[in-house]
Amino acid sequence: MRTLVVCVDRAGDVARSTGVTPPVVGREAVESLVIDLGQSDPADSSVNCFLEALRVGADLGDGPDDTVVAVVSGTADTAVGADRALAEQLDALVAAHDPDSAVVVVDTAGDERVVPIVESRLPVDAVDRVVVRQARDIESTYYLLKQFLADEELRESVLVPLGVVLLVFPILLTVTASLALAVASITAVLGAFLLYKGLNVDERLQDLSSQARDALYSGRVSIVTYVIAVGLTLVGAFAGALGVSGLSGAGAFVAAMTFVYHSVPWLALAALAGATGRLIDEFIREEALRASYLNLPFGTVAVGLVVRGFSAYFVEQAGVIPPVRTPALPFVAAGTLAPEERLTTFVLLGVLVSLVGIRVSSRVTGESGGDETP
User: What residues of the chain score a pLDDT lower than 70?
Assistant: First the structure.
């Protein structure tokens, strides 16, 4: 059984420093190479790699195995060219010595990437990586940084924000003349960026734009109703802001409830517009409607009524809005609803609308044979 102990020099230090043409085969040739490379560059870790190959060859040579020690080296400037040169040298060694297996000796993470090339030609029994003790931390840090810089996504996610911070921070410090304000601004921007990446906002925006484009091309009604919903949402926010602007001396809770009270009708209409558009699209595309799409408009109105009732209760108790006065009806005298009665009325209306929606959706889906589950 013949074993090839091959030392890999992917960086090409052998050919560049000593002028020897690889591959170098034989114990005497490798020992001579160690002396030549050691005299040329004593700090080169390849010297330790060659010595380790000689030691492994000596250990294997003490047994019944026939051992061949060799050094292969990349002779090209590019990584692909170096790997091709190593492959050609390995083919020459296999053709000349016909080994049954191999032991690969490397000294860097880059050299270890050549192991699959060796495995494609003969079985690899072991991989021996030599790490110089004094340079263990430096070696590991160097290759971690090298792999980090080779990853384009990591560079964009880390180096770009870091570079922006280093550029903007001195500008803010000069303009504002306040270290606290500059640090706060940078921290806010970094926090927004981390949330942007962590929540995959970029992918969501990309999906949203593609969905909107598909909706426009396919002529869906929902794209129009969504635009209407956005407009109604803005109107609701404006109405809520106007309602809050008239308050003076009210607490934060009362102001929030006032905003909700004035904006909820518009927000409910916005949700109803969007839900109706989606329902129409489903009705056009499918013969049978699903119960979830039929329930959505009714559920939207029901939630709007309940939220309106609770917000009205709080703002009426705070004296922001007057109580509801009921007109005179047959057999019922005119009067004023108490806040609790007003709240109960809105809650009951919300429940009633929700029950009507369930009844309508079950009847429609039952008649059309559609699936009642979303």
Answer: 62-65, 132-155, 202, 206-220, 285-293, 328-334, 365-374
DSSP character for 287?
Answer: S
Displacement of CA 114 from its chain's centroid (Å): 32
Q: How far apart, in whole angstroms, are the C-alpha atoms of residue 323 and residue 326?
A: 10
Tell me how far apart the alpha carbons of residues 304 and 266 are, in angstroms, rounded to a whole number: 9
DSSP code, position 332: B
Q: By C-alpha distance, which of 114, 7, 120 is closest to 55?
A: 7
- Nearest CA to 31 out of 9, 53, 11, 8 is that of 53
- Exposed, middle or buried, 324 (CB in 10 Å: 0-12/13-18/19+)? middle
Residue 371 phi/psi, 5-degree rounding, is -85, 130
- Contacts of residue 223, defined as CB under 8 A and 6 or more positions apart, other chains included, come to 212, 215, 216, 277
Q: Are 310 and 264 spatial neighbours (Cβ–Cβ below 8 Å)?
A: no
pLDDT at 233: 92
For the chain, where are the alpha helices, taking DSSP H only? 13-18, 27-40, 46-61, 79-97, 109-112, 115-119, 136-150, 152-154, 160-176, 179-198, 201-218, 222-245, 252-285, 291-317, 339-368
Which of 93, 101, 96, 105 minimizes the C-alpha distance to 119? 101
Tokens of 197: 């990446």
Q: Apex CA 258: angle with CA 257 and CA 259, to 5°?
A: 90
Output the pLDDT for position 363: 77
Residue 140: name the closest of 97, 108, 174, 103 by CA: 108
Alpha-carbon Rg of the chain, whole angstroms?
38
Residue carrying structure tokens 């962590």: 198
- Determine contact, residues 138/117, Cβ cutoff 8 Å: no
> Is the bond leading into 23 cis (omega within 30 degrees of zero)?
yes
The pair phi, psi for residue 329, each rounded to 5°, is -125, 165
Is the distance from CB of 346 to CB of 304 less than 8 angstroms? no
DSSP β-bridge partners for residue 335: 326
252-285 and 291-317 helices cross at what angle (nearest 10)?
160
This prediction has a pTM of 0.43
